[in-house]
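Fold this sequence, please.
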Amino acid sequence: MLRKLKLFSQHRAAWLLLAAGVLVLELTALGFQFFLGQKPCVLCVYQRAALAGLLVAALIGAIAPKTPLRFIAIFGWLIAAAKTFALAWEQTQLQLHPPLFATCDFLPRFPQWLPLNQWFPSIFMPTGNCTDRGWEWLSMTMPQWLVGISGVLFVIGLLVLAVQLPCPKKNRP
């Protein structure tokens, strides 16, 4: 089974499947914002940026899945999934245990070389509050769902990385 996972990870279709899944997550967030009136908070915006990083990693993997370039894509995948998980976890904690006075930032702090909130303000400019629960499905909020989704993506990424490593040869007598 691990051999099949390794072979699958070396096909462009696998990377495009990952990219499509991440794109669905991004489009879902935008749909909630523009069609259902859910206002994104600064942590939501950061989660979008982290997912965009995962999308870029998947597209890098799709460029040349059988070359060492896939290792860059896998590490990008792991970093982006871990960051998405951490941000979603932070927002989940704020929603479940809201502080009395502390709130999240009003403006995102993107690096000067990547001011996403200035380049794409309709997507990366926060207008909501991190403690607002807004939408729920099966008693879970969006960040709670994203904790699970990004956690699964991280574990899959670890498995994909693990199967890339050469298997030790068995000594036969």
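The longest helix spans residues 69-96. The chain has a mean pLDDT of 87.
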